[in-house]
Design the sequence.
């Protein structure tokens, strides 16, 4: 997708400045692809530990409390993502009737990666919660 974004960017520059024939669809396609790259990449390629976190307070806690707060924040984040799924799906279905200005793609295709991001992240968090719960030293006999 990054290669497609780059090539479309070059196409737009060549068409506008060398051929004196400005075209609008590459800009829209670049925006569409960039949204997909950001959300899909965030959902599938970035490890959970690399997502944005506020670890200033976390460093002050003992290992026992750090584990507990990590579990609590993962549970809360997973719950929020799951709660956001129906509203997001409703918005995406609503936006299906509207089209992008140039390419005339349904806006639902542009916003779909947001739903996929929430779904995949909720699943990844649920797996991480289960793994954290199973490996927790407090549960050891």
Sequence:
């Amino acid at each position: 997708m990054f290669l497609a974004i780059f090539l479309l960017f070059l196409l737009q520059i060549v068409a506008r400045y060398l051929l004196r024939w400005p075209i609008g669809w590459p800009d829209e396609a670049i925006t569409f692809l960039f949204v997909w790259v950001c959300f899909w990449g965030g959902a599938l390629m970035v490890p959970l530990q690399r997502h944005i976190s506020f670890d200033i307070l976390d460093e002050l806690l003992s290992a026992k409390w750090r584990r507990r707060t990590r579990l609590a924040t993962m549970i809360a984040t997973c719950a929020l993502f799951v709660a956001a799924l129906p509203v997001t799906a409703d918005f995406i279905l609503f936006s299906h009737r509207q089209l992008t200005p140039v390419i005339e793609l349904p806006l639902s295709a542009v916003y779909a990666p947001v739903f996929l991001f929430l779904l995949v992240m909720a699943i990844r968090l649920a797996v991480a919660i289960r793994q954290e719960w199973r490996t927790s030293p407090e549960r050891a006999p």
